[in-house]
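INFO  loader      accepted 1 record
INFO  loader      residues=73
INFO  predictor   begin
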Amino acid sequence: MSVMEGKNPTSLRMKFDLGKDELTNKTKVKSKTYSNIKPEATSQAIYDVATTLEGLQEFPVLEVVRIDNTTLA
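INFO  predictor   done
INFO  writer      dumping tokens
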């Protein structure tokens, strides 16, 4: 029996640098996730959107992550 794959919407997660914690001296990180992206979207297109969104953010971006979601049956 072969496995069936069902593509679900993709998400984009951006992680932001909020600066250093004064007590621990560790970098404080906040993430924001944008959901319901078409699974057919290319990684380049998602990255381009993240780059555009970066210009609208208050804090610098540390990381851009594409999260693919597939259902197996």
